[in-house]
Specification:
Elements (H helix, E strand, L loop, with lengths): L18 H6 L4 H14 L32 E2 L9 H4 L14 H10 L4 E3 L3 H10 L4 E2 L1 E2 L10 E3 L10 E7 L5 E7 L7 H6 L3 E2 L3 E2 L1 H6 L1 H4 L8 H6 L4 E5 L3 H15 L7 E5 L1 E4 L15 H8 L1 H11 L5 E4 L2 E4 L5 E4 L3 H20 L16 H22 L4 H26 L3 H22 L4 H14 L32 H24 L7 E6 L2 H9 L1 H8 L1 E7 L9 E5 L2 E5 L5 H26 L2 H6 L2 H29 L1
Parallel strand pairs: 2-11, 10-11, 12-13, 16-17
Antiparallel strand pairs: 1-3, 4-9, 5-7, 5-8, 6-7, 14-15, 16-19, 18-19
Helix pairs in contact: 4-5, 4-10, 5-10, 11-12, 12-13, 12-15, 13-15, 13-17, 14-15, 14-16, 14-18, 15-16, 16-17, 21-23
Length: 659
């Protein structure tokens, strides 16, 4: 067949002299098929005609069958040593491979092996390495209307020139005729006019997509000229892409960056997961299971979409997003996902909590801050913030996304909203304490917005601008002196607060939180109104009960208590509920229905018994004790000890009910 799909006697059919063949010459291939069948029929050679059902690939643009056609193409010899590359990249074979160090495959493989190029997740490095080690010559020509035209010229006449920048080779064209091919030599140079004047014609093919794309990191910066942009922005740092083009694009960019500029275009390659629908299928137009990002933005907001996608970004190869139809106001039905509700809910929480915080920041004066007057709750929130900043910074440095987002989520929702905002409310009524609380509140909100900004940039920027108007200077004198920026997108990343991370402070506040949780649970259990003031006794080790004593005012306010007593040997009052929080036994006076309390304690006893049985089973297993990490074994022993002590206390309370 000829390139246009017609029957030809010039493209490989040696017996074209037969009469039946002559009748087919110039005929379209589809017509020739029918003509051959008819000839078989006339010559009584046709045994049978049957229908077959089989799959034939079709072009998604023209919708016609895809028919492979063998033709001459231009190739790049990727494993052939290139003499002028030896000076920079060395010669010989790359250790442990059959890849020459000064070949195109070699200069792309070397940066991975010497540690200059890294993949995240690491497993994709093997994909890159294996492909380059087994790479065949690269077909670079395409028969397309648009693209970079291949820089090769040809003529039937030899080239008469002494220009050393021109390389000429003799070859054969598709018809087997002698032809001379010319291109620029290793030193480059503009040879187009020279060749055109000599009657040479430029090849009509264009470079394949990946050859052109491989030039992108530096050709967009003005290369081959030594431009300021090229010096400033090449090489870059990170490439974020999909796994299916590691071989097609990532390797080509490294290869051409090394060859043309002498350095790799990026140091890190982050391979993101593929988003599938809820059934694990690839999202596509043909299946109708894709989600238009603009629809998700309309239905939930850009930040909600970004938050949700970041929360799904793990080291797994694929992630699933359930797809659900949604009717728009104009009557159209489009796809979205209920998963975006997670992001929308968080953004709503952030907006409302920030608005509440800023209602209490009027008149904040940074000069009135005194770190010596910090309350335990201030020290606690700064400690928790310090941990959050350290963890998020470290996780982002390792190209993790859902982990740091979850860390910020827990800090903001649990620590900041559920606890600290509640703790600062009464302090805003105390002029002596107000300035400290305001400054810490403004500082923590500012740092939280900076941590969240990469994930949800729009709502954080809006809140930040409001914060700038209300409290232009958000710093803590003697702790962190930086705090001003005109815009969040230009603000510095939060400085680490490692010196404020304090295990003792967090442990003390955990004791306080445990008591508050128990009292709230008792209220829920017995249907006691939050307005009713309760009397509570707490007993346990002296160190823990002293924390309760020191913070009794705070506890009474948040737990709604009329009176709070703490000590080492307090006996359980009659008709009091008995609950455990760590080493502490907490009695809420005059609330108990004896039968209901017995049921509750029996349920708690069963839970503790099962926990003890599980811990004893692990510790009684020689494989666990010998193979598990020592700290894991020790933690299991500590858990068994705590559960046993709690079970002993529960059994004591059950005995008191029966006495």
């Amino acid at each position: 067949m000829a390139p246009d799909g017609s029957i030809s006697d010039k493209h490989g059919w040696e017996d074209a002299g037969a009469p039946e063949a002559q009748n087919l010459l110039g005929m379209d291939r589809f017509e020739a098929r029918e003509a051959i069948v008819e000839w078989f029929r006339q010559e009584n050679l046709l045994a049978d005609v049957r229908d077959y059902v089989h799959e034939v690939g079709h072009s998604y643009r023209s919708h016609v069958p895809i028919e492979p056609y063998l033709s001459d193409q231009w190739y790049v010899a990727v494993k052939k040593p290139v003499a002028h590359l030896a000076e920079k990249f060395g010669d010989g074979m790359i250790e442990g491979t059959d890849v020459p160090a000064n070949s195109l495959a070699g200069i792309a493989l070397a940066p991975l092996l010497d540690g200059r190029l890294k993949f995240t997740p690491e497993r994709y490095a093997s994909t890159y390495k294996n492909w380059l080690e087994n790479l065949r010559d690269w077909p670079i020509s395409r028969q397309l209307w648009w693209g970079h035209q291949i820089p090769i010229w040809s003529s039937s006449e030899p080239l008469d020139t002494d220009d050393e920048n021109v390389s000429v080779q003799e070859g054969l064209d598709e018809d087997g005729e002698k032809v001379y091919y010319a291109c620029a030599g290793p030193e480059g140079g503009n040879i187009e006019k020279l060749l055109t004047d000599k009657g040479y014609k430029r090849d009509g093919d264009v470079l394949d997509t990946w050859f052109s794309s491989a030039l992108w990191p530096f050709s967009t910066l003005g290369w081959p000229d030594e431009t300021d942009a090229l010096k400033t922005f090449y090489p870059g740092d990170v490439l974020c892409t999909a796994r299916e083009i590691i071989t097609l694009w990532v390797s080509r960019m490294v290869m051409m960056g090394q060859y043309c500029v002498g350095d790799i275009p990026f140091k890190d390659v982050y391979i993101h997961a593929m988003i599938q629908d809820g059934q694990g299928r690839k999202m596509s137009k043909s299946l109708g299971n894709g989600i238009d990002p603009l629809v998700a933005i309309d239905s939930h907001g850009a930040d909600a979409m970004r938050f949700t996608l970041a929360s799904m970004t793990t080291d797994t190869q694929d992630v699933r997003m359930p797809v659900a139809p949604m009717e728009l106001p104009d009557g159209r039905t489009v796809n979205t996902s209920p998963k975006f509700d997670i992001g929308r809910n968080f953004c709503n929480k952030l907006w409302n909590a920030s608005r509440f915080a800023m209602m209490n920041l009027e008149g904040t004066d940074a000069s009135k801050f005194d770190k010596e007057k910090l309350a335990i709750t201030d020290k606690w929130i700064l400690s928790r913030l310090g941990r959050c900043i350290a963890e998020v910074t470290g996780e982002l440095d390792e190209f993790k996304y859902n982990e740091p987002l979850n860390t910020i989520y827990r800090f903001f929702w649990n620590d900041f909203c559920d606890w600290y905002l509640e703790w600062v409310k009464p302090r805003m009524q105390d002029e002596a304490d107000k300035a400290i609380a305001q400054n810490v509140l403004a500082f923590v909100l500012d740092r939280t917005l900076r941590l969240l900004h990469p994930f949800i940039p729009f709502i954080t920027e809006g809140i930040f601008q409001g914060l700038n108007e209300l409290v232009p200077e958000r710093k803590l004198k003697g702790i962190c002196e930086s705090g001003q920026a005109d815009a969040l997108i230009a603000a510095s990343w939060p400085e680490r607060l490692d010196e404020f991370i304090c295990d003792d402070v967090e442990a003390e506040v955990e004791i306080i939180q445990g008591v508050i949780r128990v009292v709230r649970e008792v209220r829920n259990q017995y249907g006691i109104s939050p307005k009713d003031r309760l009397v509570v006794s707490v007993t346990g080790p002296a160190k823990a009960t002293s924390v309760i004593d020191d913070n009794s005012e705070l506890l009474c306010h948040l737990a709604g208590l009329e009176k709070l007593t703490a000590g080492e040997n307090i006996e359980k009052p009659k008709n009091a509920s008995a609950s455990l929080s760590g080493e502490l036994q907490i009695y809420v006076h005059d609330v108990v229905d004896v039968e209901e309390e017995r049921k509750r304690l029996m349920k708690q006893k069963d839970t503790l018994t099962n926990g003890i049985r599980s811990a004893e089973g692990k510790l009684g297993n020689d494989n666990f004790v010998s193979r598990a990490k020592p700290e894991v074994v020790e933690k299991t022993r500590q858990t068994l000890k705590e559960l046993s002590e709690q079970l002993e206390a529960v059994e004591m309370h059950l005995g008191e009910l029966d006495s």
